[in-house]
Amino acid sequence: MAWPVQFLLRGLRTIGLVLLYYVFSIGITFYNKWLMKDFHYPLFMTLVHLAINFCLSALTRQAMQCWTGKPRIILSWGDYLRKVAPTALATALDIGLSNWSFLFITISLYTMTKSSAVLFILFFSLVFKLEEPHRKCFTEVTV
After folding, report:
1. What is the mean pLDDT of the chain?
2. Residues 99 and 114 in one domain
């Protein structure tokens, strides 16, 4: 294929994946809000959701091992506790508290709050010196 055609196909694929992400993201937001109207156990719902994710991940790992023939990477318990557990705990809290918030707030407030999370990530990365302050962090980047 010629270079412009490859570029166009790659751009269309990227646009398609972004649109797919937004459709599923918006869909799951409305589904969770609808579910929370009658089912008032958001933390249990999160537990079930994460258990299903765990099972599907294990199944995918087994399938990939059979397909590629490469052995799975096994982490030590120390690595799990130091590296995996904090991320897992933060993710579980994020999902659980987000689902719980549907009992108290509207979808528009939920969306605005979740959208502002990027600003808080930037702020705390500057506070904890994980990111150096650059002018680009605070101004719009133009191409």
Report:
1. 84
2. no
